[in-house]
């Protein structure tokens, strides 16, 4: 046991300085790079840290609108056509979820609200209806929540797909109470018309016996919640119209739902009639030559199929975080087997869902850094990627509040670092997930002027000595 602890400590001494190296103590915020001719120009919306509202910025980083009442992580804030914004409102005290999911107009007036997933009664309080919404939702009309020409989300009708929580007991998984992932579809009037509960499909997930043993003992228990966040699914979207289904592959029916699990390293598609898993990668990425070549996914976020009409349509796009994830055999980095796969860098991957062939990747390596400097692109939690109509990709490196747009050649043509830091934690400026939308979705504003931002030569970018001390 002492030898094992020594190995863990040694690994920490090696990894921690590398991770810290990517965060300088002084750096600029706002738009730091902008090439208007290479970008897909529009507005960008993102939720501010510590529930400080939703911010809409132009390409030069100017705040053009701030909705204080729309809260962010762990749920996306998105603009709908006409200047509507949708996201969480009234967050649960202990659980990573929202009581209400709301859509508001430009002036902040609520035009739609859902909170009827479950009625919760706490001791000494009146029962309260809650959405228990977390991490993702989709409005009918657009399958994935990313701007797609010809696929506008509906603003005054339609169904909404919501990723929610439901507490259940399942002795096959663990003897502890599960905070299970519960995907529902609700009408505009708030009626639940379809539901899927992850624990009902435990036998379809492909866990080894070793992984099941670890999961039973260490299922992601949260003391403050009194439940185990065993899968931590962090996104759910419709597959959407695609060439695979058009060619006869039923696994990719447009109404089927794709999700990923940060905790288990699984990506899956479920069909609508019975909720069966019909397509899956993980948790074992050594199971076939194609999976080994694709590489181990860890702690993933924002998996979706690139919608028809965008470059790369039909491929899977995902932010492969790294960090720690998965259940399995204990190792020096995971003495219990919980989070037994670990890696200190991230990558954004686009791959063919039929052959599993990797089509495109953004990582520190493809951006031009040495292999030993892979940690220079790293967000171990949250984060996302959106394919833009011109073929560029908008990436949210969420942990350090960085949003940037890259070309297919992995050249950064726009970069923004959030200047909104926490009130309680003043070193924290993370961004859960950002989205780019076209200017004409906001008729309330005139199209802004776009001015290039040329970054300085870092070797000559200095802070001048002060004549008067600030300390």
Description:
- The structure is a single chain.
- It contains four helices and 31 strands.
- It has one domain (2-455): TolB, C-terminal domain (Neuraminidase, 6 Propeller).
- By secondary structure, it is mostly beta strands.
- The chain has helices at 2-21, 209-217, 243-246, 289-294; strands at residues 30-34, 43-47, 54-57, 63-67, 78-80, 84-91, 98-104, 110-114, 118-120, 128-130, 133-139, 160-168, 178-186, 192-197, 221-222, 227-228, 233-238, 257-261, 266-270, 277-281, 301-305, 316-320, 323-327, 338-343, 347-351, 358-363, 384-387, 393-397, 402-406, 412-417, 435-437.
- The strands form nine sheets. It has a five-stranded antiparallel β-sheet, with no helix packed on it. It has a four-stranded antiparallel β-sheet with strand order 4-3-2-31, with no helix packed on it.
């Amino acid at each position: 046991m002492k030898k094992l602890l020594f190995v863990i400590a040694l690994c920490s001494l090696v990894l921690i300085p590398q991770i810290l190296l990517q965060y300088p103590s002084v750096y600029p915020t706002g738009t730091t790079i902008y090439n208007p001719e290479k970008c897909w120009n529009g507005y960008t919306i993102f939720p501010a840290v510590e529930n400080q509202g939703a911010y809409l910025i132009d390409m030069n980083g100017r705040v053009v609108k701030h909705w204080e009442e729309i809260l962010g992580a762990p749920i996306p804030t998105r603009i709908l056509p006409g200047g509507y914004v949708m996201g969480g409102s009234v967050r649960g005290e202990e659980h990573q979820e929202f009581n209400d999911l709301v859509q508001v107009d430009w002036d902040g007036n609520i035009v739609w609200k859902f909170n009827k997933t479950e009625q919760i009664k706490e001791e000494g309080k009146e029962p309260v209806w809650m959405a228990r919404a977390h991490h993702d939702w989709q409005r009918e009309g657009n399958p994935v929540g990313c701007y797609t020409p010809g696929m506008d989300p509906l603003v005054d009708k339609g169904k909404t797909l919501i990723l929610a929580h439901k507490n259940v007991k399942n002795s096959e998984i663990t003897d502890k109470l599960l905070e299970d992932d519960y995907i529902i579809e609700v009408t505009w009037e708030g009626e639940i018309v379809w539901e899927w509960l992850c624990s009902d499909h435990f036998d379809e997930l492909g866990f080894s016996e070793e992984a099941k043993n670890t999961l039973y003992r260490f299922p992601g228990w949260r003391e403050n919640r009194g439940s185990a966040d065993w899968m931590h699914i962090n996104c759910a979207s419709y597959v959407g119209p695609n060439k695979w289904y058009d060619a006869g592959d039923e696994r990719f029916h447009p109404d089927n739902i794709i999700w990923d699990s940060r905790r288990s390293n699984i990506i899956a598609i479920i069909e609508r009639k019975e909720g069966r898993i019909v397509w899956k990668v993980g948790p074992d990425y050594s199971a076939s030559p194609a999976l080994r070549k694709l590489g181990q996914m860890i702690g993933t976020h924002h998996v979706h199929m690139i919608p028809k009409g965008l470059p790369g349509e039909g491929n899977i796009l995902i932010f492969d975080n790294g960090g720690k994830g998965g259940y399995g055999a204990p190792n020096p980095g995971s003495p219990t087997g919980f989070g037994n796969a670990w890696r200190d860098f991230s990558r954004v991957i686009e791959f063919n869902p039929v052959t599993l062939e990797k089509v495109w990747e953004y990582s520190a390596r493809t951006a031009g850094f040495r292999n030993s400097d892979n940690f220079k692109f790293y967000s171990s939690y949250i984060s996302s990627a959106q394919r833009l109509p011109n073929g560029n990709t908008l990436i949210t490196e969420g942990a350090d509040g960085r949003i940037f747009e890259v070309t297919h050649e992995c050249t950064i043509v726009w970069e923004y670092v959030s200047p909104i830091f926490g009130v309680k934690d003043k070193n924290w400026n993370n961004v859960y997930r950002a989205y780019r939308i076209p200017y004409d979705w906001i008729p309330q504003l005139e199209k802004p002027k776009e001015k290039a931002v040329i970054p300085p030569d870092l070797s000559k970018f200095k802070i001048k000595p002060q004549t008067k001390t600030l300390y």
